[in-house]
Amino acid sequence: MPRYVTPPKITVSITNTCNLKCCWCYGDCGKIDTKPELSTEEWCKFVDYLVANDFIRIYIEGGEPFFRPDFLKILKRCARKMMTVVRTNGTLITDALAKELKTIGVGRICVDVMGARAETHDALTGVEGSFEKSCIAVRRLAAVGIKTDVLFVLNRKNAYDIQNCVELAHSLGALRLGILRLYPLGRAKRAWADLALSLEEQTSAIAGLRSPQGFRIMQSWHPNDRNCCWQGATVNAYGDSIGCTYLREYVNFGNIRTTPFLDTWHNNELYRTLREGKVEKSCASCHDKDGTHGGCRSTAYAFHGRWDAPDPFCSDLNDGVDLRVLPKRLLQKNT
Amino acid sequence: MAICLVFTPDNPEMYTLNPSAWLILQLCDGRSEERIAAAYHAVVEPLLTREEARDEVRAGIEELVGKRIVETVSAQQSKRTRINHKDHVS
C-alpha cells in the first residue's frame, strides 16, 4: 500500500515562463508560454483547496515564479497557512522585494547559482549579468532573515567549480547548498552530449567536498539516492497532477481543472503504483533514507523504460549504464 | 502510523513531532502544567513513573514553547500558568 493516506506537502510549478534562457531548462521555458497556464483565480482556489485538505507545506518553482506578474498575490495566500518555499533564479529580487517576502512570511528561498564565476553561470543561463544578480539575491534574502539555500545543477560545464560554489554560497549567507542531478528533460535532454557527466565523474566531483562549519551540503547520489515517489505531489503550470517535476514528460494523473487533486492521488492507478515503491532491486544503503526503494523513478524510467527498474544514478545499481548516453526513445517525439 | 507536522507561521518553520511531543501538544489546551503531566502520566503509565512523566512533560513543553508551537498564558482567575497550543497542527 502507498505510505501516505493523503500527502501533507506539494510542489507547484507555477509558471513555465522565465526571464532566463538556461541551456538545461527542463521546462523549455521562455518569456511567453503559448499554452494557457492556470489563472490567478485558479491558483488561489487551489491554494484554498490545499489548506482545506491539510496540506502544510508548498514548494513553488517555475519557470521563474517572480516572472509571473500575479505571483505575489498567490504567494500571500500561501505563506501564512503553509510552510512556503520558493525556488528562483534570483535575478528579479530587489531590496524592496526581499523585505516584502520577509513580511509575507516566506519560509525559505532556494536560489539557482550554476557556478562560482560569472562566465560559467552566465554561459549556462544564456543571460549576461545573471550571475551577479543571483548572487546579490542570496545576499539580500539572507540579510533580511529569510532562510536561503543555493541550488547547483551539476553538469560538465560547472563540475570543475563546485568547491568554489560551496564557498561562494556560504559567503553570500546561504545556509545550505543543494547539488542537484542533471535530468534528461526539456533542453537538457537535447544538450545531453554537452552537459552530461559519467556517473564516475559525478561522484568524483562531489566526493571530498569540504563544507564550512555549520554549512550543509545536500546531494542525492549514493547513499542518498531516494525514491521520493511515495510522497510525490506536484501540479504543473497547466494544472496537471504529475507526482514530481522530474516526471513531467512521462505522466499525467489528471488535471485539477476537472479532477480534484486528491482524486488523482487516490484513484490514478499509475500514481498509486509509483507510490508503492515496488522495484526490481534496491540499494541497501540508499534504502535507509526514508525507507525508499530503488532510487529515483524518473531516471530509472528514462534510462531503462520501466517504472520498477533500478536507478542508474546509484553506484550500487548502475549496472554499467553510461549516463552520458541517452536511450534513443527519449529523443523521439511523445516519449 | 500517523505523524504530526506543525507549521509556525510567525517564524516560518515546519516541525515533525514524535509521539510524546504530539501527545503533550494535544494536552496543551489551556490546562496547567501539573494537569498536563497528570493526563500524560495516565496515558503512559506504567511505562513511566509519575515523576518521569512530569520531567518528560516539562522538557516537552519547554521545547514546544521554544519553537513557538505553544505559548504560556495566565489564567484569568488563577495565578497558575496555563499552556495553550497554536493552530496549524496537521
Task: Give a written overview of the molecule.
The complex is a heterodimer of chains A (335) and B (90). Chain A is an alpha/beta fold. Chain A has 13 helices and eight strands. An eight-stranded parallel β-sheet of chain A has the order 7-6-5-4-3-2-1-8, with helices on one face. In chain A, strand 2 (57-61), helix 2 and strand 3 (83-88) form a beta-alpha-beta unit. Chain A is globular, with a radius of gyration of 19 Å. By secondary structure, chain B is α+β, with helices and mostly antiparallel strands. Chain B has one domain (4-87): Arc Repressor Mutant, subunit A (Orthogonal Bundle), CATH 1.10.10.10. Chain B has a three-stranded antiparallel β-sheet with strand order 3-5-4. The interface between A and B is medium-sized, with 15 and 10 residues.
Compile the SSE list and pairings:
The complex is a heterodimer of chains A (335) and B (90).
Chain A: E1 9-13, H1 40-52, E2 57-61, H2 71-79, E3 83-88, H3 95-104, E4 108-112, H4 118-125, H5 130-143, E5 147-153, H6 162-172, E6 176-180, H7 186-190, H8 192-195, H9 199-206, E7 216-219, E8 234-235, H10 261-267, H11 269-276, H12 284-287, H13 297-304
Parallel strand pairs in A: 1-2, 1-8, 2-3, 3-4, 4-5, 5-6, 6-7
Helix pairs in contact in A: 1-2
Chain B: E1 4-8, E2 13-17, H1 19-27, E3 29-32, H2 33-44, H3 50-66, E4 70-74, E5 81-85
Antiparallel strand pairs in B: 1-2, 3-5, 4-5
